[in-house]
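It would be a great kindness if you could assist me with a short task in structural biology. The matter concerns a single protein, recorded as an amino acid sequence and a row of backbone structure tokens. The record follows directly beneath this note:
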Amino acid sequence: MASAGPSEAQLNRLWGAVCACAGTFFLLWGLSWINASVVNEDLQNSCEDLHTARFPFEKSCTHGDGTVEGANSLLFEGVFFGSLSAGVVCLGAAFVIEGVRRK
């Protein structure tokens, strides 16, 4: 088996990064759905001020004293949107490199 050239190795690393970012994104999306639909399923029964979001899934309650229950953390949302952004950037770079190689 012949060894891959530098551009081929770079392209393989980019595709690996795209897969890792997509995997992280979908894992966190699934976890947010589980948190909103399973863990916090009955939150609306005990909450006066219920907030819901669809991307990423979230169901949270703001109590009268200002505390929030059931919300996604800033770190969670940062990694969620960061993995989405990094995956799109790596995918774009992989397409550009592949397009240049084919010309």
